[in-house]
Every structure is written in C-alpha cells, then in structure tokens.
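[Automated response] Your request has been received and processed.

Submitted sequence:
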Amino acid sequence: MKNILSTIFCVLAMVIATATTALAHKIPADTVKNLNALPGNPYQAIPANVERLFYVQRTPNANTIIYELNIDSDGKLNEDEPVHPYWIRYHDKGEKADLSFIQRKFAYGVNAKPLGNGKFDIRFVSYKKFPLTLMKGSDGKYHIFATISQHQLIVNRIFLRIEGGSFWVPNVRFVEFKGTDPVTGKEVTERFKP
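Generated structure:
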C-alpha cells in the first residue's frame, strides 16, 4: 500500500510541478511563520468551507488544489460530476481559478463512478489505482473516505514534501494525509516515505 501511495503522489507531484506557472516563486517568509498543523508543512491550513471535501498542497509552491462538492443552484449534488477541483493561487493574490482542460483531464481532475445509495468511487485521473469513496458520513454530510494502512479515514488534507530532484522526477521526501477517524472523531495524520 505504501508503494502505491508513494507512486500516486510522485505522479501528482510531477504533474503539479509541471503544470504550475508559479514554480519559480519562493515561499514568502511570512507564509512559513504562519500557524502550521503538519510538521514539515510550511503552508497554513485552509479555513473550513461547507462544500470542501479535501485539498492538496505541496512544496515548493503554495498554490493549492481544492476538491469540493459540485452542488447545483437547488442545493443538489451533481451526480455526473460530484467533485469539482479548482485552484487557489496564493502567488496570484489568493485568487480562485478553474483547472485548465489539460489539468482536469491529465493531472488534478477526478473521475467519479456511481456505486448506488449515494456513494461514488472517486479516482485521480493521474493515478486511477488509488480508490477514494465519496459518501455521507454519520453526520449526514458528504466526505471523501480513504483506506490507509488498513485504517479508514475521512481525508481533509494531502501534503507532499518535495526537495530537489528534476523537473520531471521530483524528489518526494514524504506524503502526508491528514484526516479524521470517522469512529472516534479524532484527527489522524499518516505520513509515508516514497
């Protein structure tokens, strides 16, 4: 499982690094000083949002990919595309931006397959072997669930620590999942070294 996760996030890191125009920017010192819930993560947590499922952050770039519920104007879930990914571009004054066609289809987008009973199989387009499940939790709200180290958790945040390497083959030092144990409600952090 660790090898699969490492591969997933090596691919994600490579694609994120190549698709982002702000790669050459350095992280501002004030960002590094901000409140930081994950050791080794220089970026602060994103404030809570009703529709947000989880987000992905990585070094060396603060731009963040948000994955949220795709709700229509009547408040109903779009069952054809239940998850909507987009950027928060911190290097561009924190502006929200939709993913480009290439980013949606080959990098950060997700595919959804209905499983019945309001559940969906969610897969990253860049790595289809890692299953996520969109379903309602015991709180009656939709969440993304993943099984990591034989333990199910609600995924809130994914962080990739990248140090060096090349443009196409980044040196991923670790991948960190931050989530919630659906049984106890406790915060869980799982870190993997590729």
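Summary generated for your ticket: The two ends are 11 Å apart (CA to CA). Confidence is low (pLDDT under 50) at residues 1-11, 13-39.
If you did not submit this request, please reply to this message.
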